[in-house]
Amino acid sequence: MTTLVWLQRELRIDELPALQSALENDGSVIVAYFHDDRFQVGQANSAWLAQSLLTLKQDYERRGGELWLVAGDFSSSLDELIERFAIKQINYSYQVGEPFVAMQQIALQVCQKHQIALQPFYSEFLFQPEQMLNLQNKPYLVFTPFYKSLSKKRFQITPLSATQKDLSATANIAVPKNHAVLPESLQRLLDQPWAQKVMAHWSVGEKQAWQHAEQFIANHLESYLEERDFPSIAATSCLSAPLHFGELTLKSLYFYMLVRIENGQLNEEFAMGWFRQLVWKEFARHLLYWFPQLQTEPFQTKYAQMQWDQRADIMMRWQQGLTGIPIIDAGMRELWQTGVMHNRVRMLVASLLTKNLNQHWLAGKQWFDDTLVDADPANNIMGWQWVAGCGVDAAPYYRLFNPVTQSLKFDAKGRYLRKWLPELAALSDKAIHEPWNHAMECQMKGITLGEQYPHPMVDLQQSRKQHLERVELLKQIN
Ligand code: FAD
């Protein structure tokens, strides 16, 4: 019997039940990633994907196994593989959000046609969504009770078992030549200079992710909660992309820490402080599982009536980090150059875009989808709806961040600003957050607003007022 292990965003070998279970069957195992350009995700995300697939392929080969990379129409590729290699079962790890749900639907249809089993595994969750319902048997809509409930039963989280060492069953069938190389569109992307620059910031792959996680857990947990909001400090784990790509999982990180808590190597309070943050990812996945429409529609339906400003030049200045508001521009440039942005700054740029600049939250989400290496359907949509004020557990839409106050609070010395906006580096710690209010100093330092750095594209006080007026209007409509 031949079993196919279909990979989506579980780009690892160890602790992968879909693979482990296939290896326990007698017979051959084909492990395959299917790349269909119709289900393309964002560019930066795809660059990470390409690099991670190459690394995974090498990891398989090093362990005597094989990974197939199948390019083309997903449905017909799957169809052909099932027929040609007499596949009797497909194992996969369930994923939420698009394009995964659509592909899982196609896989189901193809399997039904061939009358073979399609076996899901829920390894990417701490708990299956059905196990995390509230007392009314409904999904949690607020994070704190979700977390409380999850922490109460965290000792019921089942560990993932290590994948057996012998992967030879995955090499029983020789990989056809056309499935032995990275799909052309991914290779082309990886060859782009911008992609190489972004990827130079990262080490990709399962082993690399674990090395990074171990180092973070050993050295940064103690100060995590105190420092995580300060973008100039390397206080957070930078594991969002490896977690999105399943190079490691929430479960394995949890058990890694649990073992060390139990043997006294790790302080439980510090470890659980970070674990709580990891659970946001679980919460986001559960939300999208229960409410798939969130990917395009606001949870608070009245928000769909909001009148947005459609001007493309506004969006472009925000995208390029040319708004004239330093903390926003620093964040947008960090994103462009590295493929990530600090969490606090993500909140600020999203707030400015949706509230002061009155641009649709979906436009911001799409830009993040295309430029983040960690772009994740569940986390991204939850983040944008939360900031825009139209999601579950949302900050009320009349509350908006003042980017200058936030910048002064979380980057008081302007270190983050100086890193990403070298043209403002000479300004004092006070002036760098709002150069337009320090004309004299700018002049003395040879910085002319409108030349080296733009004038602010929006008046923060006035646009705040206008946002509140739009919100009032929205209340009257409903
Ligand atoms: P750490 O602080 O070390 O946290 C560890 C892990 O917990 C993260 O890697 C992530 O997997 C998870 N996590 C932490 N905070 C959150 C959160 N607020 N929501 C969900 N999961 C969280 N995260 C993504 O992974 N992909 C996205 O596409 C994404 N889009 C976002 C969009 C907006 C508008 C906002 C406000 C937030 C978004 N986030 C997204 C959440 C968060 O900004 C990142 O997960 C975080 O910055 C990653 O840094 P880290 O790995 O150092 O996190």
UniProtKB/TrEMBL annotation:
Signal peptide: none annotated. Belongs to the DNA photolyase class-1 family. Belongs to the DNA photolyase family. This is Deoxyribodipyrimidine photo-lyase. It comes from the Bacteria. The record marks W308, W361, W384 as: Electron transfer via tryptophanyl radical. Keywords: Chromophore, FAD, Flavoprotein, Lyase. The keyword Nucleotidyltransferase does not apply. PANTHER family: CRYPTOCHROME, CRYPTOCHROME CIRCADIAN CLOCK 5 ISOFORM X1. Binds 1 FAD per subunit. Residues 1-126 form the Photolyase/cryptochrome alpha/beta domain. Its cofactor is (6R)-5,10-methylene-5,6,7,8-tetrahydrofolate; FAD. GO terms for molecular function: deoxyribodipyrimidine photo-lyase activity; DNA binding; FAD binding. FAD binds at Y224, T236, S237, C238, L239, S240, W274, D374, A375, D376. GO terms for biological process: nucleobase-containing compound metabolic process; response to light stimulus; response to stress. It comes from Thiomicrorhabdus sediminis.
